[in-house]
Amino acid sequence: MRVLTYGTFDLLHVGHINILRRARELGDELYVGLSTDEFNAIKHKTSFMSFEDRRVILQAIRYVDKVFPETHWDNKISDVQKYDIDLFVMGSDWEGEFDFLSEYCDVMYLPRTEGVSTTLLKKKKGI
């Protein structure tokens, strides 16, 4: 079974590792759509690390089998089809947002790791 998730994965922390590990445990392969810097700008987000640095870090994580760029919101259906995805997973903070993908694959929302997020880390460090 091939599993897909998306994210920015900036300032990698234990919450990121937890969702990647849990997603990978649900299948045989984990594909990650990594938000590009240009897509983050559209979402009014600024990453501390560049897309290329975030990609290198994700590719080094043993739970991740493939990393590809996420360039806009509308890629999800075509990515599911292109990569023959069986299960799409996201954090529970996105609950219901990607239910439209259930026409193409199973959709699951995983609980977030409490007390940690990139936003909190940035606030603590004044970034």
Overview of this protein structure:
With 127 residues, this protein is an alpha/beta fold. Helices cover 33% and strands 22% of the residues. It is built from five helices and five strands. It has helices at 14-25, 37-42, 51-59, 76-82, 118-125, and strands at residues 2-7, 29-35, 66-70, 87-91, 106-110. It has a five-stranded parallel beta sheet. The longest helix is centred in the N-terminal third of the chain and has 12 residues, at 14-25. The protein is globular, with a radius of gyration of 14 Å. The protein starts with a strand and ends with a helix. The mean pLDDT is 90.
Question: What's this, in brief?
Answer:
The chain is an alpha/beta fold and 127 residues long.
The DSSP helix count reads 5
Strand order of the largest sheet: 3-2-1-4-5
3D shape: globular
Number of strands: 5
| Helix share bin | 25-40%
Sheet with the most strands?
Answer: 5 strands, parallel
- Terminal CA distance reads 39 Å
Q: Averaging pLDDT over every residue, what do you get?
A: 90
Structural class: alpha/beta
Measured on Cα atoms, how large is the radius of gyration?
Answer: 14 Å
Low-pLDDT ranges:
none
Order of helices and strands: EHEHHEHEEH
Strand content: 15-25%
